[in-house]
Amino acid sequence: MLRLASERDIDFLVGIHTISFETERITRKEFLMHLRSNRSRVVICQDSLPVAYCIGVYLFTSKRARLYSVGVMPDNRGRGILLSFLQDFERGAIVTG
Questions:
Q1: Which of 10, 24, 44, 48 has the most CB atoms around its CB within 10 Å?
Q2: What is the pLDDT at residue 94?
Q3: What is the value of pTM for the model shown?
């Protein structure tokens, strides 16, 4: 199940990201910036707990959007989560123009 992330998900976001990436980590402060921005969309895939996240950034100065980061817990890889995120991101890009 996909849902929008909120600030109360920050520990899960940082945890998933830390496990998913060895370098170039997104900090807690940067996650909060994306969560609070009207240009970013942070989505979580959740079973009983969040198992993946996706950050999309919509550029209002152009018709471009950027998939900024995707992190998936190792046990949940290969389940089609990325495809769900991409479809959600594409719908969001169409809505924002």
A1: 44
A2: 67
A3: 0.89
- Mean pLDDT by groups of 10 residues along the chain of 97 residues: 96 96 92 95 94 90 84 95 92 71
Which residue reads 């920050």 in tokens? 10
- Token pair, residue 11, equals 């520990």
Q: What share of the chain is helix, strand, coil (3-state, %, to 5)?
A: 45, 30, 30
Single-letter amino acid, residue 1: M
* Backbone region of residue 87 per phi and psi (left: phi > 0; alpha: psi in -120 to 50; beta: other values): alpha
Q: How far is CA 66 from CA 62, 84, 96, in A?
A: 11, 16, 13
94/83 Cα distance (integer angstroms): 17
Structure-token pair, residue 6: 């909120």
Q: By the 8 A CB rule, do 42 and 13 touch?
A: yes
